[in-house]
Amino acid sequence: MTTVRDAAADVRDGDVPGRPESEPHHAGPEGSPSREPPSLATLFWTHALVGATGFGGSIVWLRRLMVEERHWLTAEEFNNGLSIAQFMPGPNVFNLIAAVSRHLRGTTGMVVSSIAIMTVPLIFVLILGTLYAQYGDLPAVKNAMRGISPVAAGLMLSFGLKTAAAPGLRNPIAIVAVLTFVAVVVFRLSLPVVLVTMGPLGVLMASRRVR
Amino acid sequence: MNEASLIDLAVEFSILSVLSFGGMTSALTEIQRVVVEHHQWMDARTFADLYGLGYAMPGPNVLVVSLIGYHVAGIPGCLVATLAMAGPSALLAMLVVLVWDRFQGARWRRVTQAGLFPVIVGLALSGGCLITVAAAHGPTAYLLTALTALVVLKTRVSPLWLIALGAILGLSGIL
Q1: Which residues contact B33 (CB under 8 A, 6 or more apart)?
Q2: From B63's CA, which of A97, B52, B111, B125 has a CA 20 to 30 Å away?
């Protein structure tokens, strides 16, 4: 699995400005680009689409939508939202939608987006749930999934690499990313354990560097 | 369906919502304990089937809980369980963001942000690797994973085409 090594190398290299990301679309050197928050209708339809297509984790598709295609958020704003979403309890997709909602029409936007992202999947739940209750086994779904899961894995990998390419992962602190990776992949530590050990370690290391 | 199970669904999943640090994946054992052992809403095999079904569907992985709710108490159960699992934690996240934004520019905030970010990167990368291994039924699967990652990183082609390709390969028995 060369991807693992490449990924680790990316993490070590740290600051890799404007790599495969479509950053050039953003105006302004640091802060927010000049942009209009999307309308509630736009929020609904785009999130409904993410919900309908979100194989392999909706967060991957949300990043693609919000950062790369529509430029509603900068990569940094998305990453900050993602940090909060991951460190808070609960399903992280809704945490993320809540955490970035202040950039996207506030609480109303959050509610609209959350409902939208569940609309199509809930219809699937009703259909597949009923079929399951009747037949107990769904071979066609299983077969299709055998083909879809490697694609979902590839999406998740590219998401990880894009996140790693963000500036802000400078040399010494990148070791925390490597340690987190090892803790999860090699030692199979549970996520809560990883969060309470690696989080403080990262903050401790950052407190020595950030002024 | 009786009201008792709707209330039980609401209470149990609200508690899980605010306690499930690490998200749905790490909440799974506790969900199974509550659903299979404590309330005996279903047997372990049904739970495993619904879990697999939930992950097979597109959309947020909270769908596992939606399926459980549907199985226990029909459409109302589905809605109650989903809202209970996603709502409380999302409100909590929103409150944290409110506090967070009040301290814009504060040193402790920048330190926390800088310190938590590498953990997120590590988690994203390890998630990708674990799913790759779990999804790999053979060399073709690895190839498809690598192709997807490459296409997504290097081109602007929509991943939907790759999802369709995967579904066709799976249905035709190639994968």
Answers
A1: none
A2: B125
| CA-closest candidate to residue A66, choices A91, A89, A33 | A33
Please check whether residues A95 and A151 belong to one and the same domain.
Answer: yes
CB contact under 8 A, A210 and B111: yes
C-alpha–C-alpha distance, residues B102 and A80, integer Å: 15
Q: Where are the domains of chain B?
A: 1-102
Query: Dihedral of CA A6/A8/A12/A17: which sign?
Result: positive
State residue B90's pLDDT score: 93
**Cβ–Cβ under 8 Å, residues A11 and A178:** yes
Domain count, chain A: 2
Angle between helix B139-154 and helix B107-135 axes, rounded to 10 deg:
140
Indicate the pTM of the whole model. 0.80
Q: Tell me which residue range forms the domain holding A98.
A: 37-167
Residues of B in contact with A209 (CB under 8 A): 114
Question: Has residue A18 got a pLDDT over 80?
Answer: no
Residues in chain B within 8 Å Cβ distance of A124 = 57-59, 63
